[in-house]
Amino acid sequence: MGNKLTKIENIPDFVKDVKLNNNKISKIENIPSKAKYLHLNNNNITKIENLPENLYVLDLDDNNISKIENLPKNLYMLSLENNNITKIENLPDGLRYLNLRRNKITIIENLPKKLTSLYLSKNNIINYENIPDSVEILYIFDNPCHKYAKKIDPRVKSFWS
User: Fold this and answer.
1) Domain total in the chain
2) Is 103 found in the same domain as 51?
3) Residue 127 to residues 67, 92, 120, 131, 148: CA-CA distances in angstroms?
4) CB-CB contact of 144 with 125 (8 Å)
5) Closest-CA residue to 92 (of 77, 108, 106, 107)
6) Helix boundaries (H) for the chain
7) Which domain CATH number covers 49?
8) Where a domain ends, among 41, 64, 84?
9) Cα–Cα distance list, 25 to 7, 42, 66, 104, 121 (Å)
10) CA 114 to CA 116: how far, in whole Å?
11) Residues 46-105: pLDDT tens digits?
12) Is residue 5 a contact partner of residue 24, using CB atoms and an 8 Å limit?
């Protein structure tokens, strides 16, 4: 449960794991430069910005973000479930885990070549294509292409997996 914070402030620079879920934060700011993990689920964030260069995990589920942008180069895991993302873009090359469930994506594109886990369920994806060979775990249910994709690709997991 959050504290209904509206701003991020007064976090010591040595903090590596920042968890401020379930608040009313509208802007990403004042994140410690040594932070490796940032969790800002269920806030009012509309833009990805002001992230530390060495961030490893970014979790911004349940916000109002419409564009993927300004991500650190070394990001390993990105979760943007239940936002307003319409296009997959601007992802770092080394990203391994991507969760874009419950967004407004229609085309699978611009995925990093080293991605291993991909979650795209509950979007409006029509064509099953452009999935890198490196992907080992793929959730794509509740999309128009799900039944077709499940027949041709063993990496596709069902809702119950």
Assistant:
1) 2
2) no
3) 21, 24, 12, 11, 9
4) yes
5) 77
6) 146-152
7) 3.80.10.10
8) 84
9) 5, 9, 16, 23, 27
10) 6
11) 999 999 999 999 999 999 999 999 999 999 999 999 999 999 999 999 999 999 999 999
12) yes
Domain match, 80 and 10 both: yes
- Do 145 and 115 share a structural domain? yes
Structure tokens at 48: 């990805």
Residue 102 token pair:
């419950």
CA–CA separation, 116 and 159 (whole Å): 18
Nearest to 72 by CA among 108, 36, 29, 20: 36
pLDDT tens per residue across span 93-119: 999 999 999 999 999 999 999 999 999
Give dist(CA 8, CA 10) in Å, integer: 7
What would the two tokens of residue 23 be? Answer: 């608040």
Claim to verify: residue 21 and residue 93 sit in the same structural domain: no
